[in-house]
Specification:
CATH class of the largest domain: Alpha Beta
Subunit structure: Homodimer.
Helix content: 25-40%
Shape: elongated
Protein name: Chaperone protein HtpG
CATH superfamily of the largest domain: Histidine kinase-like ATPase, C-terminal domain
Number of strands: 22
Radius of gyration: 33 Å
Pfam family, one: HATPase_c_3
Keywords: ATP-binding, Chaperone, Cytoplasm, Nucleotide-binding, Stress response
Number of domains: 4
Largest sheet: 9 strands, mixed
CATH architecture of the largest domain: 2-Layer Sandwich
Number of helices: 21
CATH topology of the largest domain: Heat Shock Protein 90
Distance between the termini: 104 Å
Structural class: alpha+beta
InterPro entries: HATPase_C_sf, HATPase_dom, Heat_shock_protein_90_CS, HSP90_C, Hsp90_fam, Hsp90_N, Ribosomal_Su5_D2-typ_SF
Length: 625
């Protein structure tokens, strides 16, 4: 006789938090628990299909793969079973007792913030199973891993509080059977029509048949009815698939509550045969900036599921793309190592990148509003593209969006194509400025000459922008030029003449000489400029030197940087400069020049090494009569 051994375990602390939120919060979309369970069963069957390629004995004389759903109104139970790969005792502890992923606390915080809203996060973190406790008082799971003995079955039980029990049982068939003991107020989920509606809504196009147990009143017998299409949607002819079906399939594939913004479905034949179905989400994944963010495509080979999150087919800057790839050319026993060193993989990757960028390009042309939604969510990710993908840099550049002086608001909605079409006739370059914030960029003194001459300048204030501009050298034959760097094209373009010392008073020439002596090697050079209209002075980087923003990036990354030496440009027409020019007291004159340099440094860098000294000097000079 088989001896049953019952063991009690405590949930991981993060699981306890999650269960507490699910049980005690009001979710308006409780029905998704069924979608999650069916999705898990479907994954278990997909994994069995894959493993059985090399180990056909895992089928255990039962290759009729399916998911079955039955209800028992007398006992208030809903049962979902599958004959997929099943779980061992170790699997049940790892999969049902812990959340072994980094970023769990961030996820729980997001869930906490959403607890009184329509839930949009269940499933996006791989914690979909726990949604059963929204509708159940108690849950029991009977499971056995494929290929093991019948006495290696496992019974997992919990009421979703602090602990769960595991018992060794005999289970003749492989796979998993989940029994939900529903709360009295959740009786709607015992109705056949309700379950059918949920399946049709969320799971119609999973590749596994789902059967519902029905009762024939006339013959007094039970029978199984197939309630989903169980056809791989991506294999169907595009003309036969409705938009609603594409959207439903996306939600089932990704567990996203929102409709996708756009999708691209392609059947390719010839030297390479494959099907791709690519989607652009409406919302970014909450963990899109995590290093271990699970991104990539679901991979099939000849309709057989191989793996989730196969990131080998899309570069990192397109990690927001969701969908699947079904290839006829890759070997069925493929591994990640083979994928990484496979010429077919590289060719598929090139093709999918092209399709992804073309899909975004069409969206930007055909639906400006939707593209703006995309840009607001994923623009920062796409900005990684120029550094990662030189081959497609022109296409990526065409998709980038910016704000500018003339835009007069912080929304990034100007394309480079639009900027170039609005350039002055004699304008040779695309002008831009990088800064820590939109307001800082918008109010930079470097813009004064451009505003005066009605020349537009792109305002770049995202942290990644300076790094991106190192790779974005030109667009449509026009080179990019930072206006915080010295450049002769600006003087050529504007009507301002270069300042000639012969046209400046001797007092101003003496002022310039004294300033150079006082500042010495603190700056690279001191000179007069006509680039300023409202500001007394500004700092300019030499054309061959590192910019301030790039220095900040290196510093933030913990890298040492050479000392920055700027060109100190002075506006001889400014009233403050004219006033300082006639100060005879050498000590006070020195204080003023040092103050002007600090002002320019504060404007350029956003901070000073010794702000107290700057304030003290300014107060001292303000008190002077």
């Amino acid at each position: 006789m088989h001896k049953q051994k019952k063991e009690i375990y405590n949930f991981q602390s993060e699981v306890k938090q999650l269960l507490h939120l699910m049980i005690h919060s009001l979710y308006s979309n409780k029905e998704i628990f069924l979608r999650e369970l069916i999705s898990n069963s479907s994954d278990a069957i997909d994994k069995l299909r894959f493993e059985s390629i090399s180990l056909p004995e895992l089928y255990e004389n039962d290759s009729d793969l399916k998911i079955q759903i039955s209800v028992n109104k007398a006992q208030n139970t809903l049962i979902i079973s599958d004959n997929g790969i099943g779980m061992s005792k170790k699997d049940t502890i790892e999969n049902l007792g812990t959340i072994a992923k980094s970023g769990t606390k961030a996820f729980l915080k997001s869930l906490e913030q959403q607890k009184n809203k329509k839930n949009e996060l269940i499933g996006e973190f791989g914690v979909g199973f726990y949604s059963v406790f929204m509708v159940s008082d108690h849950v029991s799971i009977r499971t056995r891993f494929a290929g093991t003995q019948s006495d290696e079955g496992v019974l997992w039980e919990s009421s979703g509080e602090g602990e769960y029990k595991i018992t060794n049982i005999i289970k003749k068939n492989r796979g998993t059977e989940i029994t939900l003991f529903l709360k009295k107020e959740e009786a709607e989920f015992l109705e056949t029509w309700r379950i059918k509606n949920i399946i049709n809504k969320y799971s119609d196009h999973i590749t596994v048949p789902v059967y519902m147990q029905n009762y024939d009143e006339k013959n007094k017998t039970y029978f199984w009815e197939k309630i989903n299409q169980a056809k791989a949607l991506w294999t169907l002819n595009k003309s036969s698939i409705t938009d609603e079906e594409y959207k439903t399939f996306y939600k089932n594939l990704t567990h996203d509550q929102h409709d996708p913004l756009v999708w691209s479905h392609n059947h390719v034949e010839g030297k390479q045969e494959y099907i791709s179905l690519l989607y652009v989400p409406q919302k970014a994944a909450w963990d899109i900036w995590n290093r271990d963010n699970k991104n990539g495509l679901k991979l099939y080979v000849k309709r057989v599921y191989i793996m989730d999150n196969s990131h080998e087919f899309l570069p990192n800057y397109l990690r927001f793309i969701r969908g699947l790839l079904d290839s006829n050319d890759l070997p069925l026993n493929i591994s990640r190592e083979i994928l990484q060193n496979n010429s077919i993989t590289e060719k598929l990757k090139k093709a999918l990148v092209k399709k992804s960028l073309n899909m975004l390009d069409r969206l930007s042309v055909n639906n400006v509003e939707k593209y703006q939604v995309f840009w607001n969510e994923f623009g920062l990710v796409l900005k990684e593209g120029p550094a990662e993908d030189h081959e497609n840099i022109e296409k990526i550049a065409n998709l980038l969006r910016f704000t500018s002086i003339k835009n007069n608001n912080s929304e990034q909605n100007i394309s480079l194509k639009k900027y170039v079409s609005n350039m002055h006739e004699k304008q040779e370059k695309i002008y831009y400025i990088t800064a820590d914030s939109y307001l800082s960029a918008k109010n930079s003194p470097h813009l004064e000459i451009f505003k005066k001459n009605n020349i537009d300048v792109l305002l770049l204030s995202d942290r990644i922008d300076e790094w991106m501009m190192n790779y974005l050298v030109e667009f449509q034959g026009k080179k990019f030029q930072s206006i915080s760097k010295e450049d002769i094209s600006i003087n050529k373009l504007t009507k301002e003449k270069k300042i000639n010392n012969n046209e400046i008073s001797q007092d101003m020439i003496n002022f310039l000489k004294k300033t150079k002596t006082i500042l010495g090697n603190k700056v690279k050079d001191v000179r007069f400029t006509n680039r300023l209209t409202e500001t007394p002075c500004v700092l300019l980087s030499d054309s061959s030197e590192m910019t301030t923003q790039m220095a900040k990036l290196f510093s933030a990354a913990g890298q040492s940087i050479p000392e920055l030496k700027y060109i100190f440009e002075i506006n001889p027409e400014h009233l403050l400069i004219k006033k300082i020019c006639f100060i005879n007291d050498e000590k006070i004159f020195n204080e003023w020049i040092t103050l002007l340099l600090d002002q320019a440094l504060l404007s350029e860098k956003g901070h000073l090494d010794n702000p107290h000294e700057f304030i003290s000097r300014m107060n001292k000079l303000l008190l002077k009569k």
